[in-house]
Structures are given as structure tokens and as C-alpha cells.
Design goal:
Chain A: It holds the Pfam family Pkinase. The complex is a heterodimer of chains A (367) and B (386). Helix content of chain A is 31%, strand content 14%. In chain A, helix 4 runs antiparallel to helix 6 and helix 6 packs across helix 9. By secondary structure, chain B is mainly α. In chain B, helix 3 crosses helix 4 and helix 6 runs antiparallel to helix 7. Classes of the chains: A alpha+beta (367), B mainly alpha (386).
Chain lengths: 367, 386
Amino acid sequence: MDAVERANAEHQKQWAKDQKIGEGTYAVVYRGREVSTGRKVAIKKIKVGQFKDGLDMSAIREVKYLRELKHQNVIELLDVFSSKTNLNLVLEFLDTDLELVIKDRSLVFLPADIKAWIAMTFRGLEFCHRNWILHRDLKPNNLLISANGQLKLADFGLARDFADPGYKMTHQVITRWYRPPELLFGARYYSTAVDIWSVGCIFAELMLRTPYLPGESDMDQVRTTFRALGTPTEEDWPGHKKLPDYFDAGQYPKTQLRDLFTAATTECLNLLAKCLIYDPYKRISAKEALFHPYFTAMPYPSHPSKLPKPAKKGSTLPLEEFDGNVDFEGAGPGVRANPPNKLKRKLSAEELGSRPLARRLDFSQHA
Amino acid sequence: MSNRPSGSSWLRGTTIRKGGNGSSASTRTATPQVQSTSTTIFGGGVKDPSGRTSEYFSMDDQCPVCKSDRYLNPKLRLLVSACYHKMCESCIDRLFTLGPAPCPICNRTLRKLAFTPQTFEDLTVEKEVAVRRRIARDFNKRAEDFPDLRTYNDYLEEVEDITFNLINDIDVAETEARVARYKQENAALIELNIQREEQYAQYLREQEEAERQEREQRAAELRRLEEEEREEREKGRQELIDRLETSTKDAAKLVARSRAQAQKRADARTQSSAFGGAAKAFRGRTNQGAVVADEPHVPLADAWYAYDDKYAVRDTYFDPLSEDVRRDKDKVFRAGGYRVEEAWERALRFAVASLDLAPLQGLHSTAVAVEPPVISADGDVIMAST
């Protein structure tokens, strides 16, 4: 047993695995606990064996970014260890997610509740963005809620850090209903504004209690977006017609948000409108959003402990929350734009030979 | 005999009522009762708040067609046609059973099912109510659907015009066309407003229900408290008597002590019930009972941006790598939202932020790996390096 294996065994000993609570294409999620304290955790076991050339990309991304992010509104990665050929991520255990809250028709949302959720989302997102990390898969399903009501960003399987000049990023990210127009038009160079659009869609969804822009296909998503917000002109969004996948989706008139969100306050609609600006340059940033008058206006955001939560049904909680891939109800589009394998760089034979085995990856070292 | 069906049955001393009990003997002296059973066939009429249609009824009713009156037919029921003429049920049966037929008064073609019960004595009122109700269903825009008061007022004026025309039969065809045009143009908004109204009604119902439940709960709670109090008082008195009997202590002291105990119990009770009341207000919310005050929003809870004044991003740098991006020939960087300034800022921030970082130590031991390296006051970690 070499030093790495010993260290790994040391880590493994700290956590006990209990029953399975969910399964996806590339991970199985177990409920677990910390042996020394009995604290509840979620253990996400990544199936390594089935992929020929090493670890799944989203697992790498998740570990890479969660290792470095520690914030009240971001899910905490407690530990990483390997068992046999599997990689295990030990994550904070969270009760529920925002999607379940929105879907529970017995709950009534106060304006202050929505404000609190959106404020927590922006806080977590601002923390990611200030560390130059784009989340790229924000949706109610990925906003988990802890027992004390804190909202936490989760599923960093599609996250990446801000690209260096000239490096392409994939546009096949973010679940369709929350995907910003620049990604729909195939922009390969984008920035933090993509996440803001998703937050805008979630914001609207919280008020409507139903998805705001439910497109049926990627093309239809463009049309749905334009129908809701009007077709952008060259002046609204300079250069968008030059984007790789631009197509003419038809002319739709601009409509007032006020027509749909009749009960919202002016500040609320102002923030929503700023999140849903077509031009990514003009879209509000997470930091600016936190300073928006909406949050300082009355009523104060609800205290997290007072936020509505769905009633617990049985002992097993739906754990799709841990990853978009764990999709057993099939609700929502739940698309993973790319099957995990396509995202991976193909390794040449000698590279493969020189690489250490997956289980030898040592995550206790900081890069 | 003009009113064939009911007339003959009246002769036999029975009445035929749709869905009713035919054996109820009718005496001429008895006060005629209008027990409308026809609403299943004849819709319409004006509903009162409880949802029932109250029909207009008078002792002097007479059918203008067959001249039969309440004296001849105590069960006489007059219904109103689409052209606002009255007729008795038997006339309607006789004239319109075989399909649409002209109105015996004005010759307009009528159908049997289009007759409605009469609510008001004056038929012009009946007509006005019906027209207004019909118009209000389609013209349901609200003040908030208009940019200013002026346009809203214009809209109301137009609606009033249309209503007036329809009531007084002025330019009916043209007015109907106007209504149809409006309906077509505003279909979506009409639908939306109908939904809004339904939502509001639903909300009111729910609120009423919640209030009723709360009242009941409060009453039950009060009853329980009273019961408890009575029992306790009884018990206390019994105890005091026992103690006075058996104890050798001063009687006045014993009485005072038991009084103090009773007071304490009463205090505890009122407190617990107040607590329960507050919890009820947070029905369906988590953490029932514990009331936490909401706090004002604080945009940023840490000093992350305190670094901002330690550097400034210049307008441009000598940076051959980002040359293409800055030139942005195809405008794809601009449209996608990519900014080279952010890359510069990132590089600068890392350079500046790392100046304050203590060298990381002990990273190679297993214990430290679980803990984040540097944490600011509120738990934000400062990124180690990239």
C-alpha cells in the first residue's frame, strides 16, 4: 500500500454510506453520515468503470470548482475519496430544492420570500463570478435548500472558469428553458451574463409558479424567448446577427413585463427586466444586482428559517437535485446538451499510457 | 282550449311540472308557489349572491298570448323571450316544440331554449341587465391595462356607447360588428382578465376558509382553556381544604400559598396560548413557533472588494494574445458578451490578492485537505491559486 492509497483509506474511513437515494447516468447518490459526528451527508459515487478514457468530465469539473468555493450559498464539498474504481464526492446534505418548492401548490409565496431566494441566489452566484467561475447550469432544480432555509447553488458539473482571450467555450450548456439568447445563437465567447439570464428566468418562474420560457426545442426556445420579450433589433443587441447559429426567428412585438407580472412592484420588474436584457454587455451583473433597490425596498427579504418548504413525503427525498443527470421523473427538459463522452478530449495512446489510473487521482493536493 | 297540456291536466285536478311531483293538489284558494324546476331547461335569469335565480312573480300575471291568468292557472309561469316578450310555459311548449317559430308578438324567430326566467318587473330593465352582463364579460379590461387614465376613460365611454346602442336597438348590426371585432382583437387579454378574476375569487374563497378554520380553532382552544381552568380551580380548592384539615401550619399562610400557585398556573396558561396563536399565523411555514425577525438586505457581507482600490484596470494593454478579441472583426465577441477587460482584471486581481496571502502550509497532511486554506470573517474563502 503506497502513501496515496493510505491517505485515501484514511478519508474513506471518515464517512459511512447508508441507503441509495438516487441514480443517474454517471453517478449514484447515497445518503451517508460522518462517522465521528453523525452529521448527515450525501455521497455521490461516480461510476468510473464504464468510461474507457478516465473520469467523466462533469465529475472533474465538480471537484475542481467545488474544492475552491466555500460560501454560505454554494453547496459544500466535504471530501473526495475513491473506492475500488469509483470516485466518491462527499457533499453537504440538503433537504430539498427550489423546483419542489415551486411545484408544491399548497405553498403560498410572499413577495418577501421570493426576494430572499433571489438574494441568496445572487449572493452565491456573485461569489462564483468573483472567483471567475461560470456556473452554466442554473435552474430551480439546481438550487438546493438546506434545513435552515439557506439556498445553495449546486451541480457544478457544467461549470468552468472564465476563458482566456480567444479560447472557445461550448455553447451547449444550461438547460434549455434557462438558456440565454447568445448561447441559443451559438456564441462561443461569452461571460458571466449567461448565468444572470438563468437567474432572471428563475426569478420569473418564482412569481409565475410555472416555467417562464418553456421552449420545446432549441429553435422553439428562441421563438418562445422573442415572443415573451420581443425580437431584438441590431440596436438592442449589436452584432447578434453575426453569431454562428443566428437565424431569423420572426418578428415579435415588445411587450411590457407588467402585463404578465401584474402583482409585482416596480423595483421587482426593473430588476427582472435588467436580468433579461438581450445584450450581454448591458445585462446586470451579479454584484450590481445585489445593490439593486429591489432588495432594499420594503418588505425585507424573509428570514431563511421562515421560507416555505414542501412537506416531507416519506423518508426518501428525491435526489435528482444532486445532478441534472439523475433524472428519474423526467420532468422539465432536463437536457444535457452534450452526452458526457462528447465533451471529452480524446486522448492519444501514449498520453493514456503515461496517465495515472483514475483512482490514483489525488484530490487532497491543491493544484 | 288554448293551453292544451297543462289545461287538461288542470281539469283533472293535477298539474304537470317538469321534474316535479305531479300529485300536489292545487286548490284555487291556495297561494300559488313558483317552485321553478325549469331552470334545467331555461337558463339565464339573474342570480342572487347565493347562486339561485329568484323569479319575478305577481298575482296579476297574465300570458299576453293565450290570455290565461293566475286565476285560471295558479301554476302560471311567464318566461321572457330573446326579443323580450313574455309568454307562459304552455304557450312556449305549444309554439316552439316543433322547432324555431316566429314570436306571436313581434314575428322574430325564436327557439324554445332561448327563453329565460323573468327577474324584474320591468322588461326593459331585464334587457338592460342581460346586455350589460354580456358586454361586461368581453369588455373586461382593467385600469392597469391602460397607459393612462385618459385612454381608460375613452375605453369606458366606448363600452357605454355599445351598451346603450344594444339596449335601445340603435344600429344593432353595426354595433354587433364592433363587439365582434373587439373580441377578436383582444382575445388573449380577455382570457387573461377572466383568469385573473377567477384567481381573485379563488383567493377570496381560500382566505374565507382559512379565517373560518382559524375562528373554529380559536374557539376550541378557548373552550379547552376554560375547562382546564375550571378543573384546576376545583383541584386547588380541594387541596387547600385537605391541607387545612391535616396541616398544623397557619391557615392564612396556606391560603396565601395556594393562591400564589393558582396565579402562577394561570400565567403559564396564558403564555402558552399566546405562543400557540403566533405559531398559527405561520401555518405552512417552516420553523413553526420560533418567530425570527426579517433583516434588511446587506449587499455584500465581506471585504472582497476592498482590493478594488489597490489596482486599476487600464483601457488597454500590450497583449498580443487578445489582439483578435479586441479587434473583433466578426463582432462575435461583442455579441456573445465576452470582454477582454475581464480577463485582464482577473489577472490583476490574482496578482494583487496574493500579496496578502500567507504562504499555505501543511497542505500535504491529510487533515488540512478537508479544511479550506484561508477564510475571511464570514466564511468566504479566498481562492488559493489557479
